[in-house]
């Protein structure tokens, strides 16, 4: 029995090594930089946690990029899920020239993690909960995010996880202007994919996901528009009572229409948010 258990353990280890070797080959084919095995294990020692989600936990680490030390975000995947890691690395690669998306610095296979440029330090949720943040600044950040999402859609991809916690914001030292960065590409899918088919997700648990997606239907630019509308509804509720408040609420309702064909395109939504911004300045 001891012998059989030992052999079983060796078989499992061999399968895992074969999977990691395949991962290395795929990354090489993708042209993605790879950190030497073990290097990120040292970087992750005592590294502070930035946040945790469905697929992994993010840490603030220091790595070398372009021959100099830089602070970065390392996402370590729960259970060493290779499929999720490769999908996220592929999304960062395809969106490498999109403003408002972190840049991929490389992937570590052992331990399995995706390393990107560091942004923030606060989420849009942090900013929304801070009483000192003007609502117009939140609106400006959402305008930037809509522009980023529109560029994602141009590549036939859907972010599929748009919410306040997946937007990082920072302020320019000189002007005080807010810069928004869209993070967490772990749920990115091609247009038409059905990632939640058979899952029967609850709208109470995922209020930011479109009803057709919750029901297992295909993701689309319209489903991202729904999520942006959900975020917009929270932001406009903080605006002072005026005609623009009514316009903002109407726009959010339009985005969250049950029929995805009736929702505005994300570029149209971005322009409408820009119009709201002009009326608040």
Automatic annotation (TrEMBL):
<dbReference type="InterPro" id="IPR000719">
    <property type="entry name" value="Prot_kinase_dom"/>
</dbReference>
<dbReference type="GO" id="GO:0005524">
    <property type="term" value="F:ATP binding"/>
</dbReference>
<feature type="domain" description="Protein kinase">
    <location>
        <begin position="44"/>
        <end position="281"/>
    </location>
</feature>
<dbReference type="InterPro" id="IPR017441">
    <property type="entry name" value="Protein_kinase_ATP_BS"/>
</dbReference>
<keyword id="KW-0723">Serine/threonine-protein kinase</keyword>
<dbReference type="InterPro" id="IPR008271">
    <property type="entry name" value="Ser/Thr_kinase_AS"/>
</dbReference>
<feature type="binding site">
    <location>
        <position position="75"/>
    </location>
    <ligand>
        <name>ATP</name>
    </ligand>
</feature>
<dbReference type="Pfam" id="PF00069">
    <property type="entry name" value="Pkinase"/>
</dbReference>
<keyword id="KW-0418">Kinase</keyword>
<protein>
    <submittedName>
        <fullName>Membrane-associated tyrosine-and threonine-specific cdc2-inhibitory kinase</fullName>
    </submittedName>
</protein>
<keyword id="KW-0067">ATP-binding</keyword>
<keyword id="KW-0547">Nucleotide-binding</keyword>
<keyword id="KW-0808">Transferase</keyword>
<dbReference type="GO" id="GO:0004674">
    <property type="term" value="F:protein serine/threonine kinase activity"/>
</dbReference>
<comment type="similarity">
    <text>Belongs to the protein kinase superfamily.</text>
</comment>
<dbReference type="InterPro" id="IPR051681">
    <property type="entry name" value="Ser/Thr_Kinases-Pseudokinases"/>
</dbReference>
<dbReference type="InterPro" id="IPR011009">
    <property type="entry name" value="Kinase-like_dom_sf"/>
</dbReference>
